[in-house]
Amino acid sequence: MRRFGWSRILFNLLAWAIVFVVSFPLLWTIVTSLKPQTELFLIPPSLLPGEVTFEHYAKLLLETRFLAYFSNSVVVSVATTVLVVAVAVLGAHSLVRFAYPGRERLAQLVLFTYLLPSVVLIIPLYLLLVRMGIANTLFSLVVAYTTFALPFAVWLLRSFMAGIPQDLEAAAMVDGASRMGAFFDVILPQALPGIISTAVFTFILAWNEYLFALVLVNQDSSRTLTTGVITMLVTSFHIEWSMLMAASVMMSVPVIVVFAFLQKHLTRGFGAGAVKG
Amino acid sequence: MTKVTFERVHKAFGAFVALEELDLAIRSGEFVSLLGPSGCGKTTTLRMLAGLEQPTRGTISVGDRVVNELPPAERDLAMVFQSYALYPHMTVAQNIEYPLRKRGVARAVRREQVLRAAAQLQLEALLDRKPRQLSGGQQQRVALGRALVRNPAAFLLDEPLSNLDAKLRAHMRAELIELHQRIGKTMIYVTHDQLEAMTMSDRIAVLDQGRLQQFDTPLEIYNRPVSLFVAGFIGTPAMNLVKGTLKADGNRLVFDAGGLSLELPPALVRRDVLREGGIAVVLGVRPEDVLLATDGERATVKVVEPTGHESIVFFDLMDHTVVGRVGPDVRLAAGEPVGLTLNAAKLHVFAAEDGRRLNADLQPPATQAAPSLVA
Lengths: 277, 375
Hints:
The complex is a heterodimer of chains A (277) and B (375). In chain A, 73% of the residues lie in helices and 0% in strands. Chain A has eleven helices and no strands. Chain A has helices at 5-34, 55-63, 66-97, 103-115, 122-132, 138-162, 166-174, 179-208, 211-216, 225-233, 241-267. Chain A starts with a helix and ends in a 10-residue tail after the last helix. Chain B starts with a strand and ends with a strand.
């Protein structure tokens, strides 16, 4: 007891202080979204709301286009995630398993594309999408997000795939599977933690993306949450703080849910006990 | 029951030749080991047979069917990997069942066959476990079970025992021999452990640097190694190899190596290899053919390594270190002078330049006198 006494208490205090500092903006967002309009700018500010109200949430859901933006965001994020994971899984597998000229160079190139600041790509990408006739659609956002999520996804999955013993695939093929069969039966389950990490990364990136959504979509019916909420609640003359906070809380919910469900997969060791030696 | 044939099979990875023109005919039901040091091409040979690598040229047949163009799934072979390659996300039962599932065997039949394979390998109690919950020996048995379950044409085993500890390895070795006797299937076993190859195989193919050195029964390989490499690779402790010159002197055959001069049986080597002025050779003697004899040539004991059932003794014989085996009751101490003779019936002579065997291999009569050691 004595050995762990004071230093342990101090260490815990410090840790909790850091947790509090980091989570304070989130707490403040939640508290503000629950306060009546009248309590917002009180001086001194109240840490806890005097009266808890859900009126901002109700107003957002019932009187604004919040749900339309929300569903747009879901469509864009899910579609991007599915597309990126599907392409990246196959790409990473190819980079790891097959020997062909320029394989290493290709892998490096993939990383280089990620190093390019995406902001310089906006205008060319916009012109390209216009020419393709898909500007101002949700699909244009899916394409745009895929272009910058894919390189990182391939890179991430490549390192996961490299950790899967080659013998597993060979064993499956000798056991009667085709190459694709072995891929689905053995490689995919082994790469699952990597696939989940990639999916979470892509989903969050697409969900929170603002710049491309702002530039590529100028039509209210195709707006996602990030741009939709800002155009709706923030004008040059007025900011709807309470509703903005409520919107922020509701925007965070899917991400938190996704994280909560997949967290154990993210941390679970993979390949353990697969092979010995 | 299936024979396996390699005809002029060649494999190169870029400029590196992994296997050079391999000809190998494995009989139906035979247990054949591919033996050699790392990088000799034995695993490449096995992987080509399994369909995991494509030969650069040559023909591989399983039974009467050329399998070169067939994907691994259609070759009807089962393989046990050095790493076991158990599917980590599947239970033991699912692992064993997998080959049957891939072949569309009905569920009820699958279940029955899994249970039968599990019973053969005493895995019944482990069927619901995941591979990571098993010990090395158990994992190895599951890998065997997965190979056994579907009654393949032949079994390919790629160093399946190398990850086990010595005691378990000896045990599994005996189990594998027993298994082969029971099911009588063709088995091709890759190993770098000559003891495994010697104890388990009907025949051994010794490979070095992508070349087949010798393909014969274990005893034949031990008693009549065709090259210096095979002679040095097979046997523990390794064969004593002494470089020197071999000269025909009238009817006598004399071997000279520094201060050491031996008169060898005249019929030991083929006469056609001998040259005027002698040829450079390497003389080989197995440790058990180095004999203690009071009237033998003088040598000194350098090191004694008792193993319990025998002692391995390093002698200094005219500045050459020679290893011998002596019985457990012979007490020798370092520095002790002894007399040595060599068993003339079992001497090996190899050409120094290319290592090929020069013995006439007309087995000399057992009564022949030991070579006289002349200093």
